[in-house]
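Example complex used in Figure S2.
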Amino acid sequence: MNILVLNCGSSSIKYQLINTDSEVALAKGMVARIGMSASVLTHKPHDRDQTVISAEILDHIQATEQVINILLSDKYGVIKDRSEIHAIGHRVVHGGEKFTDSVLITSDLMKELRELIELAPLHNPHNIRGINACSKTLPGVPQVAVFDTSVHHKIPDYAYIYGIPYVLYKRYGIRRYGFHGMSHRYVSVRAAKMIGRPLEELKIITCHLGNGASITAFDGGVSIDTSMGFTPLEGLLMGTRTGDMDPAIILHIMAREELTLHEANTLLNKHSGLLGISGVSSDMKEVTSAAVDGHSNAQLAFNTYCYRIRKYIGSYTAALKGLDAVVFTGGVGENSIPVRSATCAGFEYLGMAIDADKNDAVDGKECDISTDDSRVKILVVPTNEELVIARDTKRIVEESA
Amino acid sequence: MASPKIMVIGAGVMGQGLAEAIATEGTEVMLLDKTTRLAEKGIKGISESMDREIEKWGLTESDKKAIMARIIPSSDLSMADETEIIIEAIPEKLELKRDLFEKLDTICKSDCLIISNTGTISVSELAEVTERPEKIIGMHFLNPVTKIPLVEIIKGLKTDDETFKKAVAFASILGKEYITVNEYPGYVTTRIIVPLLNEAMHVLMEGVASAEDIDRAMKLGFGFNVGPLTLADTMGLDVVMSWMQNLLNELSEHKYNPCPLLRKMVRAGHLGVKTGSGFFRYDEEGNKIKDNDKKVSQ
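Predicted assembly (699 residues):
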């Protein structure tokens, strides 16, 4: 089955056409700058070179049309006919409390998705726009929504509730939802395979460290806690987001700097984190190399970043009442030797020790970087969120057939 | 490259704000003025305004880059022939606006939405100089356009429903809430705020309290975000005076008679933030100079 996997943002669409039998992405790419007269389509077929096309793409309908055209084209295409796209899987950021699994998209469902916009005003509207666009460009092809939040739906109430009046939870749905679900799920399953034991009997902490970053505790394959909360702002220090902080700070800053809600929101989400502390960059590679060159604030940002992860590993070990593996994934998790090294140092008392040579030798593939006698395994697993979406889409389409 | 579907005419403060607001929502926009130099000055103004917003954490450098790339300066009014939405924000003078509307009428497509961003001038009177009065509508945005969530939509006597609906859709693209206003001088916002500003100037002129205390009183006492004298400085004292004169001409009511202090300051070229001095003094970036809060003229 060929699944078109889409991740629709405000002015971009990322896509992959995945064959679920071989689990290979036949092609992947992205449409950027939608709404401009010079939009850019980047397309890479599995077995050929990448190509870049500039065109006027004014909306998501035109964008999906362009994606289908290039998938069909003689020169860059990978399929011959539209009918070879058997289903479409959409990444939808927020599924609220309602969606505990991926779902087939129907007109009734669209109504419920629209109701969730209030919870994810930055993401869900664009996801919905992408779904509507596909209904027009690929009518009759089944579409499935796969949510970032649904893997976390079994987090117990004492872990998802915030210490504010309970009525606000009832009134506005204010609770921990968690995000990066596809990634955490994928790497936890891979980790169990690598360890060679059933997922059901393992206690695993997964660290998704990308531009956004979150950490999840899996007990027997079930997410029992995760660091992102009501929004993706909570938890770890990120590229440009604060992560955990005393909420009174923002009230204080808003008063002192006379900030509007919008300005405060941008401050927390786009001017903070690694970028905010280091003043150098939101990119861990650049922060690390500045730190090596003696930039003290870059070093501080690096230290804060790693310390925050260590605290979460400690607290989730307590929450899990034990630990079998820590998994690193995401751009930073997969590529930063110093982050993994600083994060995992000094956990010997928990039976976890990193092997420096193995850590240095990570090369983009799944690997175990703990010492041979480390009871707790430290694993690096390249994530594959699109594959999770493709698999879910196949399952849901087959179930509902 | 196709030309933008939206055009803003007049690259002054309001035109800059409109272009920035439109581009911020992800749409390309042409910012037009009489000369390329004026249009480019407008672009520079937008860039500076965004720099201030970055300093206040409201924007990032990469946001700014993306937004600026969507604003195209021009001085060629004939480009309006392909445009779908035109909004003018040229000075609040009837002859200038009438002249522009006459020209637009000959250039624009028949289904083009033509909007006047006016606070006090009659939309019907502007519509009359065109052959398509039913397609002309007023949308009164407030400064700073990117921050004020309100727009007044003004139906002229002949504005049709389709035009009104298009204007509502345009407001929603910009994320603005709107109120519907039946044409009458000053609409709602200008009509109510102008006498308040004027009264604050009288209180100052009569020596009742200092400029700073007048503003503090209204901020702390009534929850105003900014005091009336600071607000007048921000709007531009010449602009406030032209509103008053328009209201006075239309309604002949004494309450719209500009306070003598306002007349005097406008004559002296103390126009508020944009000239660095008004009821308060401002640095080049438009920040109030704190140690010198006393009024500068009188």
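The mean pLDDT of chain A is 95. Chain A is about 40% helix and 20% strand.
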